[in-house]
């Protein structure tokens, strides 16, 4: 379905920056009590990381 390939250095850096931003959002969500909505929000963060890496793999980085 998706072509697997290694990221180059620039792609690794961008993926890391995205991950840092998503971790910051996760830390904010950790201030909320456990509930269904929080669980869904955390799932969407995981989806965002997955799909951003897929986008990098499929299209590369805009320069």
Strand content: under 5%
Radius of gyration over C-alpha positions, nearest whole angstrom: 14 Å
Provide mean pLDDT, rounded: 94
Q: Tell me how many strands there are.
A: 0
Q: Structural class of the helix and strand makeup?
A: mainly alpha
| End-to-end gap | 26 Å
Unreliable residue runs: none
Write the H/E string, N to C.
HH
User: How many individual helices?
Assistant: 2
Percent range for helical residues? over 70%
User: Shape, please?
Assistant: elongated
Kindly report the oligomeric state of this protein.
single chain
Largest sheet: none
Description:
The chain has 63 residues and is mostly helical. It is built from two helices and no strands. The longest helix has 24 residues, at 36-59. The mean pLDDT is 94.
Defining key terms:
single chain; 63 residues; mainly alpha; 2 helices; 0% strand
Give a topology summary.
Elements: H1 9-29, H2 36-59
Helix pairs in contact: 1-2
Task: Give a brief description.
The protein is mainly alpha-helical. It has helices at 9-29, 36-59.
């Amino acid at each position: 379905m998706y072509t697997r390939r290694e990221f180059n250095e620039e792609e690794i850096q961008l993926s890391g920056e995205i991950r840092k931003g998503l971790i910051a959002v996760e830390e904010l969500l950790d201030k909320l009590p456990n509930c269904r909505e929080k669980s869904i929000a955390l799932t969407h963060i995981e989806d965002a990381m997955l799909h951003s890496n897929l986008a990098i793999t499929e299209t590369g980085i805009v320069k």
